[in-house]
Specification:
Number of domains of chain A: 3
Mean pLDDT of chain B: 80
Distance between the termini of chain A: 58 Å
Shape of chain B: globular
Structural class of chain A: alpha+beta
Strand content of chain B: 15-25%
Strand order of the largest sheet of chain A: 1-2-3-4-6-5
Largest interface: A-B, 83 and 61 residues
CATH superfamily of the largest domain in chain A: Transferase(Phosphotransferase) domain 1
Order of helices and strands of chain B: HEHEEHEHHEHEHE
Strand order of the largest sheet of chain B: 3-2-1-4-5-6
Shape of chain A: globular
Mean pLDDT of chain A: 86
Structural class of chain B: alpha/beta
Number of helices of chain B: 7
Oligomer: heterodimer
Number of domains of chain B: 1
Low-confidence stretches of chain A: 1-12, 334-370
Strand content of chain A: 15-25%
Helix content of chain A: 10-25%
CATH topology of chain B: Rossmann fold
Low-confidence stretches of chain B: 1-10, 226-230, 241-249
Number of strands of chain B: 7
CATH class of chain B: Alpha Beta
Helix content of chain B: 25-40%
Number of strands of chain A: 27
Largest sheet of chain B: 6 strands, mixed
Chain lengths: 482, 249
């Protein structure tokens, strides 16, 4: 283990200029400053030109931020591995005799990663699938971090980046991560993301307050609105610190609190919240209701855990289908009928588990008022036919042109890994109207069709997508429904 | 072939794929007024001060625009007001993306009080919005007010928006009256920024236009010790600015 002795350097400069050289002792490398990338409240960030062409950046603290405590935090972080490749983790502490204070180097994020503020300003247009993938990855990675006994302390949209093409994420500003409960660090959070009990000064950031911040940022990403900004926010003329303290700390009321409508969204300023609230399934929205009612009243026990978010987000992602009339992404959240087989799949999302009613009964669609209508106001198509895969009566995955199955789908014990699919929807190379499911796993699938009997699908082979086909994936069985 | 027919329907949306975006629109933002209040008195001509100032503000604009792009809650509007003999608006509130600086010339007296009166006239509703963020007022001066500054300032501070504003002042050179600039800020523990040379001026202008802007608009990570409990916005401490250049204009 490398140990650091902090040297006291008294100089009259705390900034770098392009071309300056920087010696990184722990990487045994001399780099040059390329340019300044940005300046924040804690310091400045510079891109580096490295002899081995690695993409590194240097964060150099302002003198008043270069505290002994910050140094201790960095020492801890640089001697521990990054929880995952998504974190822009401090790799080595940097000290420089010609400069005051200290800094650290970390990997530079690729240009494909964009700030979520671009989505909130609608300067990029990702899909629901991309957003849900990002949200899932955020929960997954904070789960890993928290499981290691660490706490982020300053979770906000300012520190997260996503790839609008596929939902991959990067987590920045990792230099405030500390062991939970150690009460170290320079920051207590970003006002709109801080848990009410932190704003009111009742506690310092910890993993429970991280969970609150996590719920706020998921809500921001999925509803394009702050969860506490409703009528009460519009009544504030100048949103300054005292009014923010009241809105987000002293008297926080969820805009969709089922028992208190006093902070309901204003149709002019909070139309996004109203639009998106109508689109997501009830069971998913219930998690937000819990986060911002019980989760505020009871910070220790009332908050939604990352594992709950992960399951819900993954199921929601699996339920996306495209309206065949307008192409909009909708969520399969209703009673669906496998009419051709006289089987009823009921309350799929409402119970988060699926029950197959094998009795031959037909459900009359018209009776179910929650029956799906495409959300697109110009479409409102209600004639929804969706092909989906039902796995062990446990999971439902809609089959779209870009659907992939992963190992967690066929084996609930497997961890979520969106990098290695085990199956994907494909198109027939000659007949573009024929769709199949390609076996990307190492296992041979046993497939049963009512009319043709059993066939085997070897790795890399494709199976024609037709209803009532049953696939034995090895760990579990799935059935194609329509 | 019947089965194939069904499948065709199922994937028929592919034609529309490129057209569809998610519903809703941009997150609703609040107006944030950022106002430059610039001393254009005759003494600003000495040692190229006004040229340095023009140059520094031009340098700061792209950084300001980049900062604003990451802003999820503010619609940043920048305006500018000059004072010399009398005071005058020179740039009306302009969206940050369209903001262009107009080079100022220095000539005349230091009617800072007039500038305060002009400010007080706009810092109420209307013309200000009833859905805003605390405005940022940046006063830059190198000298002594030649008119009744106190009356002007009092008038400004009578306006709720004037009181709630984040008021920052930058003294250009040693001759500036720091007491006057301190009065403008109001709080005792925040001091006017003293720019002893063009490099410091440039750094301070950059700092107010990015860090202070975002303190009002996109509150950043808050430090454990709040700088000032009375403050209506927590402003990060200015960076210590060290310089090797001599303190000469």
């Amino acid at each position: 283990m490398v140990t650091y002795e902090r040297e006291i350097v008294m100089t009259n400069a705390s900034e770098y200029h392009p071309g300056d050289s920087v010696y990184i002792r722990d990487l045994d490398m001399v780099c040059n400053i390329e340019k300044e990338l940005g300046s924040g409240t804690q310091g400045k960030v510079y891109s580096l030109i490295c002899p081995d062409n690695s993409d590194l950046v240097l964060k150099w603290y302002f003198t008043n931020m270069a505290t002994d405590e910050q140094f201790e935090i960095l020492k801890f972080l640089t001697t521990n591995p990054s929880p995952s490749e998504k974190f822009l983790w401090p790799l080595a502490i940097v000290e420089d005799y010609s400069k005051s204070g200290f800094g650290y180097v970390m990997s530079r994020k690729d240009n494909r990663f964009k700030s979520f503020s671009l989505w909130l300003s609608r300067k990029v247009e990702p899909t629901f699938k991309v957003l849900l993938t990002s949200c899932f990855e955020i929960c997954q990675n904070f789960h890993i971090l928290h499981s290691k006994g660490l706490c982020y302390q300053d979770l906000s949209l300012n520190n997260l980046y996503f790839d609008p093409a596929n939902g991959d994420i990067r987590i920045g500003d990792t230099d405030n991560i500390v062991v939970n409960g150690s009460n170290k660090g320079n920051v207590i959070g970003t006002p709109k993301f801080m848990a009410p009990e932190v704003i009111t000064g009742n506690t310092l950031p910890n993993t429970q307050t991280d969970l609150y911040s996590l719920a706020v940022l998921l809500f921001y990403i999925l509803f394009l609105n702050h969860p506490l900004e409703g009528k009460k926010e519009t009544e504030i003329k100048s949103l300054d610190l005292p009014s923010m303290e009241h809105l987000y700390g002293v008297n926080p009321i969820f805009i969709f609190d089922p028992e208190d409508k006093s902070n309901y969204p204003d149709p002019i300023y909070h139309h996004n919240a109203l639009i998106f609230w109508d689109i997501y399934p009830k069971v998913f929205k219930n998690l937000f209701i819990r986060s911002f009612t019980e989760g505020i009243r009871d910070p220790l026990h009332g908050r939604v855990r990352e594992t709950e978010w992960k399951i819900a987000l993954s199921e929601l992602r699996d339920s996306i289908f495209h309206c065949y009339k307008c192409g909009s992404e909708n969520f399969l959240q209703f009673r669906t009928i496998c009419e051709r087989n006289d089987k009823v799949v009921s309350d799929i999302m409402d119970n988060t588990s699926t029950i197959i009613n094998t009795r031959s009964e037909k459900v009359v669609r018209a009776k179910d008022t929650s029956f799906v209508v495409c959300w697109n106001p110009k479409c409102r198509n209600s004639n929804i036919h969706v092909m989906f895969l039902l796995i062990e009566g446990r999971l439902m995955v809609t089959l779209n042109h870009d659907t992939k199955l992963y190992s967690h789908h066929i084996n609930p014990d497997n961890r979520y890994d969106f990098n290695s699919p085990i199956a994907e929807v494909t198109r027939h190379p000659k007949d573009k109207n024929v769709w199949g499911l390609r076996n990307l796993s190492q296992n041979t699938w046993e497939v049963f069709k009512p009319d043709t009997g059993t066939v085997k699908v070897y790795p890399q082979q494709n199976l024609l997508l037709t209803t009532n086909t049953e696939i034995n994936f090895g760990f579990s069985r799935g059935k194609i429904c329509y | 072939m019947k089965l194939f027919g069904e499948i065709v329907i199922n994937f028929g949306y592919l034609v529309f794929m490129t057209l569809m975006t998610l519903p809703g629109g941009e997150i609703s933002k609040r107006e944030l007024h950022f106002i430059w209040i610039v001393d254009c008195s005759g003494s600003m001509r000495d040692e190229g001060k006004i040229q340095s100032l023009n140059y520094a503000i031009r340098e700061a604009i792209p950084h300001m625009q980049r900062e604003a792009e990451n802003n999820i809650q503010a619609n940043l509007l920048i305006s500018a007001l000059k004072f010399s003999t009398g005071a005058q608006w020179i740039i009306p509130p302009t969206s940050v993306t369209n903001f262009r600086w107009i080079d100022l010339q220095a000539k005349g007296e230091t009617d800072m009080g007039q500038a305060m009166i002009l400010l007080s006239e706009v810092l109420h509703i209307p013309p200000m919005t009833d859905r805003g963020l605390p405005p940022v007022l940046v006063l830059l001066s190198d000298g002594q007010p030649t008119d009744n500054y106190d009356d002007g300032l009092n008038k400004l501070l009578k306006e709720p928006w004037g009181r709630k504003a984040i008021r920052v002042s930058i003294a250009i050179g040693e001759d500036a009256n720091l007491d006057v600039l301190q009065k403008f800020i109001g709080y005792d523990d925040r001091k006017p920024l003293l720019a002893r040379n063009p490099e410091m001026l440039s750094n301070y202008i950059r700092w107010v236009s990015t860090v202070v802007q975002s303190a009002s608009a996109r509150p950043k990570s808050q430090n454990r010790e709040l700088d000032d409990q009375k403050a209506n916005i927590a402003i990060p401490k200015p960076p210590e600015l060290f310089s090797n250049t001599t303190d000469v204009w």
